[in-house]
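Entry 12.
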Amino acid sequence: MRRTTAVTIIAILAAALTACAGGGSSGDKASSDTKPAGGPAAIGSSSVTAATAWAAIHKAVPTSRYSLTVTEANDGNHLLGRPHQYTSAVKFADTRVKASDVASSEKGDVSYGGGIEVFGNHSDAQARADYIQAIVKASPIFAEYDYVSGDVVIRISHYLSPAQAAEYKTAGDKL
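Predicted 3D structure (C-alpha cells):
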C-alpha cells in the first residue's frame, strides 16, 4: 500500500512537472537564435513581454537560442492568459546543454535551456516560481533554476552549471 501510494505521488508529480516544462509540439531543440516573431506579443498589460525579455537576455547570454513562442494553440500547460498565470512566454535552448543529456525530445523543453514567463504582477510570478520549486523539492529529478525579476520568471535547465545559470539571473536582473 505504501509503495503504491509513493508510486502514485511520483507519477502525479511527474505529470505536473512535464506540463510545466512542456512547450507544445515535438521536434528539434532549437530553431533560431533570432528574436521571436509571429503570434501575439502578450495577453495582458505588463510592459515587458517574453519576447522583449528574451531579446535582452539573449544579448547578455549569446549561447541562448530561441525555440518557440508559447501561444494558446501550443501551450502544453494551458496557462497562457488564464487568471494569475503568464501573459506571454517563450522557450529557448542553450548551446552548452548537450542534447544527448536531455531525456525529452519535446521542442521547447526547459531542460534544453530554459523558458521565460511574464505575468501581470510580481505576486503571480513569485507564486509560479514557488509552485515549480515545490515540485522540484518533492522530486529532485525535475530540478531547474528559477529566477524571478519583477513580473518575469526565468526558468533555466539544471544541465547548466550554477555559474552558467547565474548568467541568466544577472541578465534577468536588468529587465
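Annotation: Residues 2-173 form one domain. Helices lie at 2-21, 50-60, 122-138, 162-173.
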